[in-house]
């Protein structure tokens, strides 16, 4: 079992007003009152856009802010997310009723009130359809659950075409479009006509930009098989002392802090810890 990740600190802390969310270096306390269970779904219909990388960063971010979360990896039979976060992650098939029950039927009873679902490549539309068929979105609309959809798009126009396909499912969701630059992906600029064409049927809660991470640093984290924050703490996947490069740990620390800035900017902590009314 990996040890609890270390705090992420910035070289130059940003000035924040009293109304802004706390940063990853100042974890918020877990709420003592009941909160509505929250589901964060990370997915795309296009493969190779870095969904699992983002899910891993979110799990680190929540942990650093003292929010207990569990995760579900839908890349069966061997999940990449499960490899990095085995203690919190269960491998499931989101289209199978038995596995749907493991997620949805336990939302109110699980100690973890935040569930992160990493959708396999090409599985976003089928996953949303499956959730719709079991009435999950009706429950979200009635206020029983919170739902956050992180739609990871690629640099091609085909990723934008996914927006129209998922529009019917996100009316009551906190829907964020995510551009993942971790591997130096370059995104095109959308002209007004293109923007209007693909966004006329959907309202987004905002856009999240995942910054680039040094290729060598990313590769070393992959080889370690440990969460980003565990790598930063110079520990291996079992939580034992390691000999990771100081330089590469520094790159990962800065990158994870910047990701935390983005997630705080869009208010992710508030969205997943909203109290029951």
Care to describe what's here?
There is one protein chain. Helix content is 36%, strand content 14%. A seven-stranded parallel sheet has the order 3-2-4-1-5-6-7. The chain is built from eleven helices and seven strands. The chain has 277 residues and is of the alpha/beta class. The model is unreliable at 1-5 and 9-32 (pLDDT under 50). α8 (215-224) crosses α10 (246-265). α6 (157-166) links the parallel β5 and β6. The radius of gyration is 18 Å and the shape is globular. It starts with 37 loop residues before the first strand and ends in a 5-residue tail after the last helix. It has a domain at 38-212: Rossmann fold (3-Layer(aba) Sandwich). It has helices at residues 51-64, 80-84, 97-104, 124-133, 136-141, 157-166, 192-199, 215-224, 228-232, 246-265, 268-272, and strands spanning 38-43, 69-73, 89-91, 114-118, 146-153, 174-180, 206-210.
Rounded radius of gyration (Å) = 18 Å
The CATH topology assignment of the domain at 38-212 is: Rossmann fold
The side-by-side strand order for the widest beta sheet comes to: 3-2-4-1-5-6-7
CATH-defined superfamily of the domain at 38-212: P-loop containing nucleotide triphosphate hydrolases
Beta-strand percentage?
Answer: 5-15%
Q: Given the structure, what is the number of helices? A: 11
**Total strand segments:** 7
Going by helix content, strand content and strand pairing, the class is alpha/beta
């Amino acid at each position: 079992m990996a040890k609890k990740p270390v705090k992420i600190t910035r070289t130059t802390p940003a000035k924040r007003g009293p109304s802004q969310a706390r940063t990853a270096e100042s974890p918020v306390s877990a709420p003592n009152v009941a909160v509505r269970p929250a589901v964060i779904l990370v997915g795309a219909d296009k493969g190779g856009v870095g969904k699992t990388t983002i899910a891993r960063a979110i799990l680190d971010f929540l942990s650093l802010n003292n929010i207990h979360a569990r995760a579900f990896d839908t890349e069966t039979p061997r999940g990449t997310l499960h490899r990095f976060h085995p203690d919190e992650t269960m491998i499931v098939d989101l289209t199978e009723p038995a596995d749907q029950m493991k997620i949805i039927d336990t939302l109110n009873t699980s100690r973890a009130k935040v569930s992160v679902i990493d959708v396999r490549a090409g599985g976003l539309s089928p996953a949303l359809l499956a959730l719709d068929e079991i009435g999950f979105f009706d429950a979200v609309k009635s206020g029983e659950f919170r739902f956050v959809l992180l739609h990871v798009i690629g640099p091609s126009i085909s990723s934008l075409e996914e927006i129209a396909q998922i529009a019917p499912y996100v009316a009551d969701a906190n829907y964020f479009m995510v551009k993942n630059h971790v591997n130096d992906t370059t995104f095109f600029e959308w002209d007004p006509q293109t923007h209007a064409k693909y966004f006329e049927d959907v309202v987004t809660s905002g856009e999240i930009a995942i910054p680039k991470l040094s290729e060598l640093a990313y590769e070393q984290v992959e080889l370690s098989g440990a969460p980003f924050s565990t790598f930063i703490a110079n520990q291996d996947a079992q939580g034992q002392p390691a000999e990771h490069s100081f330089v590469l740990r520094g790159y990962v620390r800065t990158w994870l802090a910047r990701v935390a800035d983005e997630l705080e900017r869009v208010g992710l902590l508030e969205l997943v810890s909203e109290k029951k009314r």
